[in-house]
Amino acid sequence: MTTEVLKVNGMSCGHCVKAVEESVGGLAGVKSVAVDLSSGKVEVSYDESTVTLESIKETIDDQGYEVE
């Protein structure tokens, strides 16, 4: 199990939080995802044998947000 904290730009409301949490949380291998809107950070715990960090970042990008 790996945990990463990603800085994500463009999130500004509860809808943004829900979009990121549901899209990333729906990936196979993701165990948990938590968005801190005030800091713009997303903490993701995942099984690196099932899903890659790059796939997680792409999923966030697909929702319209920018991962630093």
General description of the model:
This protein is an alpha+beta fold and 68 residues long. The protein is built from two helices and four strands, in the order E-H-E-E-H-E. It has a four-stranded antiparallel β-sheet, with helices on one face. The longest helix has 12 residues, at 14-25. It is globular.
Secondary structure: number of strands:
4
Shape: globular
Beta strand %: 25-35%
Q: What kind of sheet is the major sheet?
A: 4 strands, antiparallel
Q: Structural class of the helix and strand makeup?
A: alpha+beta
Order of helices and strands: EHEEHE
What's the overall average pLDDT, rounded? 96
Weakly predicted, low-confidence segments: none
Radius of gyration computed on alpha carbons: 11 Å
**CA-CA gap between termini:** 22 Å
Major sheet strand order: 2-3-1-4
The number of helical elements comes to: 2
Helix content: 25-40%
Short descriptors:
four-stranded antiparallel beta sheet, alpha+beta, 68 residues, 32% helix
SSE layout:
Blueprint: E1 2-9, H1 14-25, E2 30-36, E3 41-46, H2 53-62, E4 66-67
Antiparallel strand pairs: 1-3, 1-4, 2-3
In short:
The protein has 68 residues and is of the alpha+beta class.
